[in-house]
């Protein structure tokens, strides 16, 4: 295949769903800008993907730092055709017991960095009359989540934000898609300190990040507004819409409590 000359930017592109999305973009001959905190992981991922005959730029940034998120926008010097806001974190535990600064960092990363990057690149895309943005939401965004109260709330923001901006820019040539995975076999739960949770004890029930990425990528290319990855997750979200939020919260409390 011949390089199509177009560029895609992927945050959190060195592992999990983000890396799988980067692979799909590389297979379609998009040049890549990969953004993550760890320079060694960025270099390793770039080496893997450059074998596809594409260009790969790496930028090491901690996007929970708002100044670094803004600096990223200034440093990108090529027109970005596709933006993937994948970088995100959670923390496990009771809200009153979790460290405040850790939770504020999650809000900065999951919400503020998404807003900063989306605003910058959506304006550039609109000026060209074309572009696609994929924001990593979660089924968590539709479900109040005890033991991960802040994370679930950040994903509710991502879903609402993506849907609203999509409507505002429906005539701009820019599409916005929210990908909503459920429990997926990535390092997210380890980083969140969630390995004792009942919800992640059964590894066999976890989704494959490659399958989730494929669902999101196909929805992105089709310009769909959102996609829930996995039949089980679709059922859970549908059921939650006919249950009182208090009942959903209790159900999640039981599902996510420590074993």
UniProtKB/TrEMBL annotation:
Family statement drawn from the similarity comment of this UniProt entry: Belongs to the short-chain dehydrogenases/reductases (SDR) family.
Species per Swiss-Prot/TrEMBL record: Mucilaginibacter ginkgonis
GO cellular component, one term: membrane
SUPFAM superfamilies xref list: NAD(P)-binding Rossmann-fold domains
InterPro entries hit by this protein: NAD(P)-bd_dom_sf, SDR_fam
Protein name: SDR family oxidoreductase
PANTHER family with a match to the protein in the record: DEHYDROGENASE/REDUCTASE SDR FAMILY MEMBER 7B, SHORT-CHAIN DEHYDROGENASE-RELATED
Domain of life: Bacteria
A molecular function GO annotation: oxidoreductase activity
Lineage: Bacteria, Pseudomonadati, Bacteroidota, Sphingobacteriia, Sphingobacteriales
Gene3D superfamilies in UniProt: NAD(P)-binding Rossmann-like Domain
Keyword Isomerase: no
């Amino acid at each position: 295949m011949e390089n199509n000359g177009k560029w895609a930017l992927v945050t959190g592109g060195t592992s999990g769903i983000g890396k799988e999305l980067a692979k799909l973009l590389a297979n379609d001959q998009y040049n890549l800008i990969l953004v993550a905190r760890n320079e060694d992981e960025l270099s390793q991922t770039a080496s893997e993907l450059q074998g596809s005959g594409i260009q790969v730029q790496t930028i090491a940034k901690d996007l929970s730092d708002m100044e670094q998120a803004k600096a990223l926008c200034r440093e990108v010097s090529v027109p970005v055709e596709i933006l993937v806001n994948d970088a995100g974190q959670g923390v496990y535990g009771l809200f009153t017991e979790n460290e405040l600064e850790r939770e504020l960092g999650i809000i900065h990363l999951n919400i503020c960095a998404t807003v900063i990057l989306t605003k910058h690149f959506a304006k550039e895309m609109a000026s060209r009359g074309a572009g696609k943005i994929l924001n990593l939401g979660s089924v968590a965004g539709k479900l109040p989540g005890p033991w991960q109260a802040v994370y679930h709330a950040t994903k509710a923001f991502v879903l609402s934000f993506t849907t609203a901006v999509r409507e505002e820019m429906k005539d701009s040539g820019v599409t916005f898609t929210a990908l909503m995975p459920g429990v997926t076999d990535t390092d997210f739960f380890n980083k969140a300190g969630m390995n004792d949770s009942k919800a992640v004890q059964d590894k066999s029930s976890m989704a494959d990040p490659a399958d989730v990425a494929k669902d999101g990528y196909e929805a992105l290319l089709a310009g769909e507004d959102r996609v829930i990855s996995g039949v089980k997750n679709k059922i859970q979200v549908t059921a939650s819409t006919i249950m009182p939020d208090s009942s959903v919260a209790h159900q999640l409390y039981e599902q996510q409590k420590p074993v």
